[in-house]
Amino acid sequence: ASPSASPTESPAPTDCYDQLTPKLTGQFGANSSLPDDDELVIVTMQNGTHVSFEVNQVWSSDNNVSMISVDYKPNLTYTDCFTEFDVAFGTTLDLQSVCFDGWAMITVYIYFGEPIDDQDECERCVTPDDDDED
């Protein structure tokens, strides 16, 4: 087949970030409804070895959330539990995680009850008991 007589138009390339959609895989503890997945966690950059992402406080516009903890791997040998207390609606937490085999896994913990400032850092990123309502 020979080339066309005049240039043809092809579709514009898609932005890779449009294809990076976080996915909620489970909810434990309180039976609060959650906003859409695309509001909770937003991927802002990826380069094959790392992914930058935002965790957004979009759960409670009336009151601050007592605590948000994010369990993620900043590198291959270390897991971090980043925690922010008394988080106002609209707050964005910017973090970066290492990728392995083309994906990264993070876990976001939202605490609505009384502030738990004295909680051990390691316990801030632990799934609550089934009957826990905070």
Q: Can you tell me about this structure?
A:
The chain has 134 residues and is mainly beta. 3% of the residues lie in helices and 34% in strands. It contains 1 helix and 6 strands. The strands form 2 sheets. The protein has a 3-stranded antiparallel β-sheet with strand order 1-2-5. Residues 12-19 have low confidence and may be disordered.
Question: Which features does this protein show?
Answer:
three-stranded antiparallel sheet; 6 strands; 134 residues; globular; 3% helix; single chain; mainly beta; 34% strand
Number of separate strands: 6
- Chain-averaged pLDDT: 76
Order of helices and strands: HEEEEEE
Query: In DSSP terms, counting alpha (H) and pi (I) runs of 4 or more, how many helices?
Result: 1
Short synopsis of the structure:
This protein has 1 helix and 6 strands; from the N terminus they run H-E-E-E-E-E-E. The chain is mostly beta strands and 134 residues long.
